[in-house]
Amino acid sequence: MLPIAMLCGVLFHDSIGKIAFLSPYIIFIMLLITYCRVSANEFRVTKFIWALLAVQVLGALCVYFALLPFSSDIAQGAFICVFCPTATAAPVITGMLGGSIPRLATYSLFSNVTVAILAPLLFTYIGTDADLTFVESFFAISTRVFPLILAPLALALLFQAFMPRVHDAIASRQSLSFYIWAVALIIVVGNAVSFIMKEPADKIPEMLLLALASLVVCCAQFWIGRRVGARLGDKISGAQGLGQKNTVLAIWMALTYLNPIASVGPAAYVAWQNTINSMQLYFKTKRETIS
């Protein structure tokens, strides 16, 4: 599904612009499906949650300021690869690898809420529009990010309280988010390709550096997440929580609020994280076959 979706985005990038407006709605639906997976009584902030959130936020800022003296574009691309929340499909992959689905689904919730709260402030500082004041830019970003990430949570809680059958029906169809994600991937890859095609040839070295930076960040997040998770009782959930990112949301945020060329970072991250996941699933299956 991954290569097919990416190939469709590449081949039909000229036409993707006609349906690009669907991206926020698709992200909304994916988050709603994920949030319905977690019951309200599971929303507990544990050491596991705090540790991963610290790496996600503080790590993103450290990466940004470390790369800023060399290139603001590369700094933004690496920043969004760390700051963006956990992928909506991460709990599914975590379950396949033997990790805790409820624990990662809970972290996914807090990860998204953290981004909703901090994104307006950080994006206003990092990608401030010269035509807007800080307050105007902050307000403009808040009105788009808050509803997109927090409204699905509110709707999921309302379903659980007043329409439990609807809530259970959505929760039992988690696989739908994977196929919806594939459609979203076609759109964001198509948009990214359209942007890259319009860039002059002298931007190619910078785009290659962005792809390289996202590879380093991807490997580092899987490794750090595994180390943190091992100390707190679940190395698989730790690795997937930090390493597997919602790249659909990341590309959309980069194209919308940062320098658009920064979207090359999360676009390349799509390939890196899925290569790592494929290898993990392959070796797990091989070990089980041998045993």
UniProtKB/TrEMBL annotation:
Presence of keyword Chaperone: no
What is the name of the protein in this document? Transporter
Gene Ontology CC, one term: membrane
Membrane topology per the entry is:
Multi-pass membrane protein
| Native organism | Muribaculum gordoncarteri
InterPro entries linked to this entry: Cation_efflux_TMD_sf, Na+/solute_symporter_sf
Q: Which UniProt keywords apply?
A: Membrane, Transmembrane, Transmembrane helix
Q: What is its main location?
A: membrane
Give the signal peptide as a residue range, or say none if absent: none
So where does this one cross the membrane? Answer: 16-36, 48-68, 74-97, 104-126, 146-164, 176-196, 208-225, 246-272
Q: Where in or outside the cell is it found? A: Membrane
